[in-house]
Predict the structure.
Amino acid sequence: MENQRFLLYTALALVLYLIWTSWQQENEITQSPGVTETAQMNNPVAGQSELYQNFGVPAPIEQGQSEAYVPAKSIAKSVAATPRVIVQTDVYQMEIDLRGADIHHLELLDYPVSLDQDSQPMILLDDRKKTYIPQSFFVHAKRVNNDVSKLAPSPMAVFQAGKLKYEMADGVDELVIPFTWRSENDVVVTKNYRFTRGSYLINVDYTIENQGNSVWSAVQYRQIRHSYASQDMGFFKLPTYTGAAYFDDKYQKLSFDDMQEETLGKTVNGGWIAMLQHYFFSAWLAEDLESNVVYSQVAKKEVGTDFIIGARSEFIQVAPGQDREIKNRLYVGPKLQKVIEDIHPGLELTTDYGMFTPISKPLFWLLDFINNLVHNWGLSIILVTLLIKILFYRLSATSYKSMAKMRKVQPRFQALRERYADDKQKMNQAVMELYKNEKINPLGGCLPILIQMPVFLSLYWVLIESVELRQAPFMFWIQDLSIKDPTYILPLLMGVSMFIQFKLNPKPPDPMQEKIFMIMPVFMTVFMATFPAGLVLYWFVNNLLSISQQWMITRQYEKAS
C-alpha cells in the first residue's frame, strides 16, 4: 500500500509541476502580437485575374491592386487614414472607423486590467499594437472596370456618419448609430449599430435600398482578424487557448498553427465563428436557418501575420425600387456562462474546461449557486469543499479506517521486514497474509488522493477559465481568487496542514520514502505559492477536513480495539 501511495503522490507532484509551469508562462510571458516570418495567404480562389470568381474568400493585397481587394485597413499602410467615431455605452468605450464602419478599438469598462490598474479598462479589440478586428462587408456579383467596390461596400468603403461622437445617455436603454454608403448604381447601404444597456451583444444590421434600375446581387462576409499568438512555450503549451473557433452543431477549435497548415472551407447552417482568448472573446452569430461557408485565411502584413476566420453568406438580391434588411449579431465581451448560453446554442463552450468539462461545469454551477446565496466566491469554495467531503464521507471513512489498521499493525509489519530481510518473496507473502488476517485493504489509503486529484484539476480549470471569478475577492489580504496569494500566507498554511496530515498516516517502511514524504509538504508549498489563491484555499480547507475526519476515525478505532 505504501508503494501505491508513494506513486500516487509522485504522480500528483508531477501534474502540479506541469500546471505550475504553464501557469507561470501564462502570467509572466507576454504573448507576441505578431511574428517576424510572414505567411502566404491561403486563398481558395484560383488566379489573380479571377479574385472573386465563385465568390471565394477575399484575396490578399498585392502590388498594383485597387483598394477593392484590400481585406482590412490595418494591412494597407498606404491608405489614407479616415476619421473614427467615438462611442461610449455603459459597458463599452470604442472607436468605429469610417472606412468599413468596423470597430477598430474597444475597451471593456467593467473589466479593469488588474486590481492595481483598476482605472484602466481591459482593451479587447485593437489595431495599434496588435490586430483584432471584427469586420462585415459585401462583394457584388458584377464589376465596374474590374472593381467590385463601386457596387457594394467593401472593407475599404468609406461610410458617412451623422457625428463623430455618440454616448448612451442616462436613463436610455438603447443607442443606435447609423453609417451610410452609396454605390455608383444608386444603391444606399445603411449599417446600423444597435447597443443595449448592460449587454455585450451588438446588433449590426444592414438596410439595403435599391434606388437604381437593376437588381443588386451580392454576398455578405463577416470575419474576425487576429494577430498571431503562439500557444507553445518550449516543451509546454499555455493553459488557456488563444485562437479561432466555430460551431456547426459541435464546438470546433481552429488554432493559428492549424490555419497555416490547411485552409478551412465548409458549409454551416446556423452556428457561429469566434476568436477566443483568456476570459474574453468575440463572435459573429448566424441565425438558425442561415447557411454560410465558414472559411479561414492567413494574411501577410508588412510586420507579422493576421489570421482570419469568417462566414460567407448566400446571394442576397434586392430588386429595383425595393429594400431589404439584413440582421447580424456580434458578441464582444467576457465569457459569462449563464449569459452567453441563452444567446446562441454552444456559445457557452467558449469557456473551455477541456477534458475536465464533465466535472468542471457542475462544479462551476454549484459554486455559482452558492455564491448567489453568500455573495463571496471564497466562501463558496469553502462550502463546496465541505459538500464534496460530505458526499465522499463514507468512502473516505473506509480509507481512514484502513490506515488506522495499518498504524496498529505497524510493529508486526516491521518485524516481518526484519525477519525476511533477505527473502523479499517470503516477506511479501507474509505481509499479504497479515493484511488478509487483519482485513486490511492495501489500497484503501490511496482513495482520498484518487478522489481529490480530479476535483482539484477540475477546480483549477474553473478558476483559470471562468471570468466570473476574475478579480473576485475573498477576505482580508486575498482580493483576487484567480491569482496567487500576494503574502504567501495561504500556501504556508496549506503546507502545514499537509505536514500534519502526513504525520497521521502510517509511517512508510522505507526510510527513503519517509524522507520524501517529509519533503513533500515543502515541495507542495513552493509550487502552490504561485497557484490561484482560490485553488490553494480549496486544498487547505480539504486538508483541514481530512485531518479532522482521519483523527476522529483513528481515535474511534483505537478505542474500539
In short: The two ends are 22 Å apart (CA to CA). The chain has a mean pLDDT of 78. Residues 2-21+358-560 form one domain. The chain has twelve helices and 23 strands.
